[in-house]
Design brief:
Shape of chain A: globular
Largest interface: A-B, 33 and 36 residues
Strand content of chain B: 25-35%
Order of helices and strands of chain A: HHHHHHHHHHHHHH
Strand content of chain A: under 5%
Largest sheet of chain A: none
Number of domains of chain A: 1
Number of helices of chain A: 14
Distance between the termini of chain B: 37 Å
Helix content of chain A: over 70%
Strand order of the largest sheet of chain B: 6-7-8-3-9-10
Mean pLDDT of chain A: 88
Radius of gyration of chain A: 19 Å
Number of strands of chain A: 0
Low-confidence stretches of chain A: none
Oligomer: heterodimer
Structural class of chain B: alpha/beta
Order of helices and strands of chain B: EEEHEEHEHHHEHEHEEHHH
Shape of chain B: globular
Mean pLDDT of chain B: 91
Number of strands of chain B: 10
Distance between the termini of chain A: 33 Å
């Protein structure tokens, strides 16, 4: 039989199917519209984009972790929960495809939806260039950081989706985990931990926070440790997803 | 030997679903798995197809141990899960292409395989309609076509005619008979009439154990009718 590299071919097939599924149902369009509306609302109304009288996108990027925290678990909640509910997971797991290819294909499709949402915010970038002379390299870096962070939130969503057949339960669990990982970096939380167990431990806890690692990126700085953090978080959550999917074989 | 199953055992928590099941299937055999609901038919088939791992026992497909080389074994068998779960928003054509590509077939090979399987399963004009708009019978045929895509010698079909009207059942049984001429097939069914119509062998399972493994005619001769044979062999379930 004429064959491609099995794992890669399976991953691409799953990726295409999942993307098609997002595009042929209203889900992706609703998510993208809600995301764009929410990001505009926060950037202009809460962040005071015009009032700050500076040509940069700081008020825009500052809200990304909080919006992603709710928006991306909603994109990812169906990835595995829906397969389990409909029984299609049995079809997938009886095809000769490695589990990693299924997990990665689905994750990449969800990430594509998130990246398209992010790309559609480009009018804001054009606007700041019309209004002044922003540091475009810094904005580009912030976009890359945001894209990586989106991957991390989606990977959390994928992991939670793999442990329950109910999409809404997957969503709530993912928002909860995402909130914990995000809020660890808030000054309020840091002060709380520092007050109880000392400043050093408080700072150590902050290093596990998504906010902490996105902070440098939104200022336009590429920090290797932050890239490493997001990539590791994605790998860890996808690894957990694969384990949870494979655990079904045990009954 | 296409399939060799030995000492298969599976528990779900405290419940023993399959208890020491063993049999083999060769080319030209259409084996009917019979038994009451919850007897262990689907669990047995899922273990053969590599969806579930047995607690004990061995499944060998073309002498390949499913537990050790799951993907190699899965390349050699076709499986229709119970209820034939499909993706409703896809058409049979895009669905079958997806299955072929997930199986690792290259573009041209996949196109060729889809055409052949669609023809074998008699999908006809429905190939370009969304699956969610198709009748139950056609959905089952799409599931069958997916199991046939890579032209496997061993087919595992879990209740392939369940919920179909008499015409649809007749068409699927014809297909099973045709496929069984050159392959080995295992089908699970509640229909004794189906076992008589298509199976060359009947394996009766009750409470996770094989209680009979004979030609349908031999079972009928022993008990008068297949229905009486079924009742006599699976009374344990009734008593519970």
């Amino acid at each position: 039989m004429n064959k491609k590299r099995p794992g890669l071919a399976s991953m691409l097939a799953i990726y295409r199917r999942e993307l098609l599924s997002y595009l042929t149902t209203p889900t992706a369009y609703v998510f993208v519209a809600v995301f764009l509306f929410a990001i505009a609302l926060f950037t202009f109304q809460v962040g005071g984009f015009f009032e700050q009288r500076r040509a940069d996108l700081a008020p825009f990027f500052a809200f990304h972790p909080w919006i992603f925290m709710v928006f991306l678990p909603a994109v990812a909640m169906r990835l595995w929960a829906e397969e389990t509910r409909s029984g299609a997971v049995e079809l997938l797991l009886t095809l000769p495809a490695p589990t990693w290819s299924l997990v990665l294909g689905k994750f990449l499709a969800a990430w594509t939806v998130a990246l398209v949402s992010l790309l559609l915010t480009f009018p804001l970038w054009i606007t700041v260039n019309v209004l002044g002379s922003p540091d475009n390299a810094a904005i580009f870096t912030a976009y890359l950081g945001s894209a990586l962070m989106a991957g991390a939130y989606l990977a959390i969503g994928s992991a939670m989706s793999a442990i329950t057949p109910a999409q809404i339960v997957a969503f709530v669990l993912a928002v909860l985990v995402a909130f914990l990982l995000t809020a660890l970096g808030l000054p309020l939380v840091l002060d709380f931990f520092s007050g109880i167990i000392g400043g050093g431990v408080g700072e150590a806890i902050a290093r596990f926070s998504i906010l902490h690692h996105f902070d440098a990126a939104q200022r336009g700085v590429v920090e290797f440790r932050s890239v490493f953090y997001f990539v590791s978080l994605i790998a860890m959550c996808l690894g957990f997803t694969a384990l949870a999917v494979d655990a079904r074989r045990g009954g | 030997m296409l399939l060799q199953v030995d000492g298969l055992r599976k528990t779900f928590g405290p419940r023993l679903a399959v208890d020491g099941v063993g049999f083999s299937v060769d080319v030209g055999e259409i084996v009917g798995l019979l038994g009451p609901n919850g007897a262990g038919k689907t669990t047995t088939m899922r273990m053969i197809a590599g969806y579930l791992e047995p607690d004990e026992g061995v499944v060998k497909v073309f002498n390949i141990d499913v537990a050790r080389e799951r993907r190699r074994a899965q390349e050699r068998l076709g499986y229709l899960p119970e209820g034939a779960p499909l993706y409703g928003e896809m058409t049979p054509w895009t669905f079958l292409r997806f299955v072929a590509e997930t199986r690792g077939m290259a573009r041209e090979a996949a196109r060729h395989a889809v055409r052949r399987a669609a023809q074998d399963a008699r999908l006809g004009d429905s190939i370009d309609r969304p699956i969610e708009t198709l009748s139950k019978g056609y959905k089952r045929r799409v599931g069958l076509a997916a199991a046939l895509l890579h032209d496997p010698m061993l087919l595992i079909l879990d209740e392939p005619t369940d919920g179909l009207d008499p015409n649809q059942r007749h068409a699927v049984r014809d297909l099973i008979r045709r496929l069984g001429e050159e392959r080995g097939l295992i089908i699970s069914t509640h229909s004794l009439e189906e076992v008589e119509a298509v199976c060359t062998r009947a394996i009766v399972i009750d409470q996770g154990r094989i209680v009979a493994d004979k030609a349908p005619a031999a079972l009928r001769d022993e008990h008068g009718t297949l229905e009486r044979a079924f009742q006599a062999l699976t009374r344990g379930e009734e008593r519970q």
